[in-house]
Amino acid sequence: MRKIAFGYSTRCTIRCAHCVAAGEIPDTQKMEFARAKEIIRDLAAAGVTGISFTAGEPFIYFDDLLDMVSLCREKNMYTRIVTNSSWAKTPEKTDHLLALLKHCGLSQLRLSYSRWHQENVPRQNVLNAARGCLATGLDYFISFVTDFSEEDDTYEHYLRDNNLKFFPEPLIYAGRADSLDRKPICTDYQENRCAMNPYLAPDLSMYACCDAGSHFNTTNFFLLGNLDDHSIQELFVKSETNPLYNCIRSMGITAIASFAGMNARSIVTYRKCELCKKLFDSPETLKDLQEAARSSDLQRWSR
Ligand code: SF4
Ligand code: SF4
User: What is the pLDDT of residues 167-211, one digit of tens each?
Assistant: First the structure.
């Protein structure tokens, strides 16, 4: 099943210190509305069945969003909007906006929440948005971004105290978060596989990975190409047939790191996306791994 993260605009209502989407130059980009609708039609024709509207704050262009969600419904595509809830100031306003989205066929709302978001958006807004979803019959969940520090406990308790559906999301140290302090960690020796749903940026560049992958600036390993030069179908095929991407999906990054010569003791000190960056944003290591994946030596590194 093909899915995509759709970055209509990187413009946001707030400026979080941990933002992965930010850090690009220019800071704010937006697709042409007519082109965005054309792309959605092309995505449907290419067999994409799910779109996540993300990047900056999608509610800034609310009328455009309604039109795009309606178009997706017309094309039988599952739709999700990732939002910071800054618009959910009162229950009345929230219910009104959510009813419009529900009417247009929105499938799910993903509410971003963290101690960084909540420096600028009151927690009450997230509560309004979640309760509005329940009242409107719209599926939702809260994405609780955390660096697992003690100061996040009160944020987690707030969600529990209000019976909200949430999932912890490890902070990704990319974009603005690249400059945040890292606490030493020691993870389990886990596979670290990634589904790798592509991300379409407002400048129409498409990346094979929607998280930290657009920030591998030395090798641009995850950059598939731009829709001004390639069709969506071509870029999806490129993503799906790249042997090294497929090893990330099937073997996971930990096994690839071990194959590349990293000590197990060193591997467990890396967060997933940072381990990925260490391997694939280094031209020499990347060249060796691409060769190993092409010759299937890498795929043979399995139990
Ligand atoms: S993390 Fe989300 S809400 Fe915060 S600045 Fe980035 S896009 Fe906006
Ligand atoms: S580990 Fe690599 S492929 Fe997976 S989300 Fe992070 S940057 Fe993307």
Answer: 999 998 888 888 888 888 878 899 999 999 999 999 999 999 987
> Which atom of ligand 1 is the closest one to the Cα of 145?
1
Is 257 close to ligand 2, i.e. is its CB under 6 Å away? Answer: no
Neighbours of 170 (CB within 10 A): 14
**Which residue intervals of the chain bear CATH 3.20.20.70?**
2-183
pLDDT in tens, 62-98: 999 999 999 999 999 999 999 999 999 999 999 999 9
Nearest to 51, CA basis, from 152, 170, 269, 197: 197
Q: Say whether pLDDT at 273 is over 80.
A: yes
Which of 63-72, 151-160, 202-211, 232-241 is predicted least confidently? 202-211
CA 280 to ligand 1 centroid distance, Å: 26
Kindly state the tokens that stand for 156.
Answer: 């987690």
| CATH top-level class of 2-183 | alpha beta
pLDDT value at position 182?
85
Taking the centre of ligand 1 as the mean of its atom positions, its distance from the CA of residue 55, in whole angstroms, is 8
User: Could you tell me the distance, in angstroms and rounded to a whole number, from the CA of residue 145 to the centre of ligand 1?
Assistant: 11
The ligand 1 atom nearest the CA atom of 175: 6
- In this structure, the residue with its CA closest to atom 4 of ligand 2 is 194
Return the structure tokens found at 143: 């994405």
Nearest-ligand number for the alpha carbon of 277: 2
Q: Are 206 and 224 in contact (CB under 8 A)?
A: yes
Reply yes or no on whether the pLDDT at 212 is more than 90.
no
Q: Is 5 in the pocket of ligand 2 (CB under 6 A)?
A: no
Residue 73 vs residues 35, 59, 151, 207: alpha-carbon distances, Å: 18, 18, 41, 24
